[in-house]
Design a protein that fits this description.
The strands form two sheets. This protein has a three-stranded mixed beta sheet with strand order 2-4-3. The protein has helices at about 35-45, 50-60, 60-80, and strands at about 5-10, 15-20, 30-35, 85-90, 95. The chain has a single domain (about 5-95), classed as Arc Repressor Mutant, subunit A. The longest helix is centred in the last third of the chain and has 20 residues, at about 60-80. Helices cover about 40% and strands about 15% of the residues.
């Protein structure tokens, strides 16, 4: 298996876990979103970027971006529909520094 290419992330989530109010954390099953999945959702769904533009920002191919986004959307839907905690952690990402540059 090929090693994963580094994905560039601009926005790091403030909260790393979202859980249902109706269950205590110890009784919650969870789904795990990687930082690159979180960034893909932010760019495509919140910022409204086209996949090709979002992929360029993350420095990955458009098909790779599409796979990451689909995976993230499936995990979020699983968490919401099946009342699971959604945790954000990990992934092969580098954080873009905030010195006016969008690319390293």
């Amino acid at each position: 298996m090929r090693p994963k290419k580094t994905r560039w992330v601009k926005c790091v989530p403030g909260e790393r876990c979202f859980k249902p109010q109706c269950k205590p954390m110890r009784k919650c099953k969870g789904v795990y979103l990687s930082l690159d999945e979180f960034e893909a959702v932010r760019l495509a769904c919140l910022e409204g970027l086209k996949q090709i533009d979002a992929a360029k920002l993350m420095q990955i191919s458009r098909p790779t971006f599409s796979r990451i986004l689909t995976s993230a959307q499936r995990k979020i839907a699983d968490g919401l529909v099946n009342i699971k905690a959604i945790r954000i952690e990990g992934g092969c990402c580098e954080i873009i520094k905030k010195k006016g540059k969008d690319k390293p």
